[in-house]
Amino acid sequence: MESAPPAKKVLSLVLLIGGVALLAASIAMDVARSSSGLRGPMLIVGILAVLAGLYFFPSQRRHRDLVNVIFLFPLLFTFAVTVIIPLVLGIFYSLTNWTGIQYTQFVGLANYAAMFKETSFLWSLLITILFVVVNMILVNVVGFLLALLCTSKLKGIGFFRAAYFLPNLIGGIVLGYVWQFVFNNVLIQLAGDGISLLSNTNTAFMAIIVVYIWQYAGYIMLIYVNGLVTVPGEVLEAAAIDGSSPVTTLFRIKIPMIASTITICTFLTLTSAFKQFDVNMALTNGTGSVQNFMGNYLTNGTQMLALNIYNTAISKNNYALGQAKAVLFFIILAIVSLVQVRISNKKEVEL
Amino acid sequence: MKTKMRTGPFIILMILAIAVAIYTLMPFFLVVINVFKVNTSIVSNPVSLDGTSFAQLRQNLSNVINNSNFSFWTAFGTSLVITIVSLVLLAVFGGMAAWVICRNKTKWSTAIYMVFIASMIIPFQVVMLPLISTFRDVGEFVGLPMLQSIPGIVFAYLGFGGAMTVFILTGMVKTVPFDLEEAASIDGCSYEGIYFRIIFPLLKPSIVTVTILNGMWIWNDYLLPSLMLGQNGRVKTLPVAVQAFVGSYVKQWDLILTAALLAMVPMIIIFLIAQKQIMSGMVEGAVK
């Protein structure tokens, strides 16, 4: 490739120059605060023209690098704008008096101090931890039992698996309203006492757990089924010949052999339960009275962390405090994730 | 072990399996029977089949679909466009990024990969508030609205879905033998041609997996579109429309349940068509 075809070279140069000109023009318009609607399209066409110009640029040695950059660009750019920049800004905003639009002063850790003085937030933190622990156990036990059921020699296994998994397909908002109907109308009719489970804080909290298990156990079941079918048939046959009872086989062979699956499922339920938002919002919207928690009367009896963060920022318009809570939320999740990675690495070494 | 299960345990297990299936399907069943009724008979007798009629179903459907607060077809179309465009772009761009990361073992590619992996633990809650202000600023800078616009939401889904997509597709690219690429290169295939002609077609099984995982998430997502589009914005996705609709018709169960049914039906139809792929895709995504 001593001499590149001249047409390609001309095309490349035209695109590069045109692209840079368009970029410069659009930035100039931006600086001049022009209200022309052409500014945005010009910027985008400019970027595309520069990229195309680079792509056609006739140099073999650089060509690979250019293609690499062009191939990485779309996802890296969107990732930076939607995740990295907001994350960095968010951590910074949590240290200011940010209003969602601007901030006027740096307040240090005042937001963090404020949230720990807020009893309603501490209540949310407490019930979220309770929710996570209860679900980590219940969803895994239920999911595992369903998986045993779905790997036995029953007829119509395919149907049962699909039926148990079905709730997981539907979004939490829609499911929340459907279950609200079930609790507020159907169960009242069946029980006949006219009191909805959702009207009492404790039973409403249990209701959220019931709906969560209903929604999530089928998914966890599928992962356990996937783990259980990898247990080799010969091992199970050998155990049966040696006279091992089904219960012994379960505890001595099946469960130890799917240890890594158990780790995955525990972690999945943990993070998903911790982030629970949709069902919480649609089913109770966090309401529920608490007579006395640390000397305060609370009205957010079933409001978990994710919903508390949302309400603090969006409904109560306290963005800086909401952001500080979100950062704490992130720190807790990050610690849990690191611990989980540690544990699973250790287990894999042992196996 | 190959012998049949004894009859006693078999019957007990079968009854148990059926009971659990009835329990998991019960809410769906209740929705289906009640959309055939008028509101008063839903409230007075939600579990019976009395008062159901096809005429009433038609009435409920037209009440909901023609309701200007819900505008079902617009919301459905918006959700469909957002989901399909995001999925196609995630597959194409994700494959491109995965291939570059996998085939260039430099400091940069490793660092980018590590950042992608690490970012998967970032919960949406920690970025959602600054995301709105960043998008507003970027939109103002560029002169194109990023909030309350379909391209803006697609952009956000590319950003949030990218990490998981690259992670799963990188696993697949690793299994493609490098010899294939060398052979193509010797035969005169250009560097970028190798990706589009050789690698991308071979990634198909993993692309199905990421498309299912991303598709379930994007179609059902509520929080991101509700924040970006606003509760009563011009553009609404289906979950946002359902939420706004239910908020304005408290206790009107005929309308609420019909709206819920309309929101559930597309997903259930897709599940009935591609049940195997969806279930295995969901498992693969979790196990990796």
What do these coordinates show?
- The complex is a heterodimer of chains A (351) and B (288).
- With 351 residues, chain A is mostly helical.
- In chain A, 74% of the residues lie in helices and 2% in strands.
- Chain A folds into 2 domains: 80 residues, no CATH class; 235 residues, MetI-like (MetI-like fold).
- In chain A, helix 1 packs antiparallel against helix 2, helix 5 packs antiparallel against helix 11 and helix 6 packs across helix 8.
- The longest helix of chain A has 34 residues.
- The radius of gyration of chain A is 28 Å and the shape is extended.
- Helix content of chain B is 78%, strand content 0%.
- Chain B contains 14 helices and no strands.
- The model of chain B has no long low-confidence stretch (mean pLDDT 89).
- At the A-B interface, helix 1, helix 2, helix 3, helix 5 and helix 6 of A face helix 1, helix 4, helix 5, helix 6 and helix 7 of B.
Concise summary:
The complex is a heterodimer of chains A (351) and B (288). Chain A is built from 14 helices and two strands; from the N terminus they run ααααααααααααββαα.
Write the layout of secondary structure elements.
The complex is a heterodimer of chains A (351) and B (288).
Chain A: H1 6-31, H2 39-56, H3 60-93, H4 110-117, H5 119-150, H6 157-165, H7 172-191, H8 201-228, H9 233-241, H10 246-257, H11 259-274, H12 278-283, E1 290-293, E2 296-298, H13 305-315, H14 319-350
Helix pairs in contact in A: 1-2, 2-3, 4-14, 5-8, 5-11, 6-8, 8-11, 11-14, 13-14
Chain B: H1 7-34, H2 39-44, H3 54-65, H4 72-103, H5 107-119, H6 124-142, H7 150-175, H8 178-186, H9 191-202, H10 204-220, H11 223-229, H12 238-248, H13 253-273, H14 275-287
